[in-house]
Design a protein that fits this description.
By secondary structure, the chain is mainly α. It has one domain. Helix content is 52%, strand content 3%. 29% of the residues are buried.
Length: 135
């Protein structure tokens, strides 16, 4: 997806994206999708360093337990983590099978995309998988 066709929520989202992609170790589709996604919500933009460690190049799943998390920011983070890792990293933090299953459901398309961010979530998927979304 080229720069001029990426749909941004607002000027703050666009600015966040270009500023933070430079903080990444590499500008690959994983990092681009992660940073784009984390820029969708004002809450996740404000708390980006609580979500992703740019110096260590790792996600911080423990951020989902913090008090600033809203249902919208939670959806943004789940999609960002999934696009970046190709997994459901927070599931491993649950010890009981029932809790792991409940956590898996939070990564479902219907749980994540059923909100006003869906257009931008789809753009994040296109950024992550450009070879499948061309045309």
């Amino acid at each position: 997806m080229e720069k001029n066709v990426i749909p941004f929520v607002d000027a703050e989202h666009e600015s966040f994206y270009y500023e933070n992609i430079r903080r990444c170790w590499i500008e690959d589709c994983y990092h681009k999708a992660l940073v784009y996604c984390l820029g969708i919500s004002e809450d996740t933009r404000r708390n980006v360093d609580r979500i992703f460690d740019f110096q260590m190049n790792v996600i911080k799943p423990e951020c989902l337990k913090e008090g600033w998390i809203t249902s919208g920011s939670q959806m943004v983070i789940y999609l960002a983590f999934n696009l970046y890792t190709d997994t459901m990293p927070t599931v491993r933090e649950r010890s009981r099978k029932q809790d792991q299953i409940r956590e898996c459901r939070r990564y479902s398309v219907s749980d994540i995309f059923a909100c006003n961010y869906a257009r931008y979530f789809w753009a994040a998927v296109q950024i992550r998988y450009p070879e499948y979304c061309m045309g």
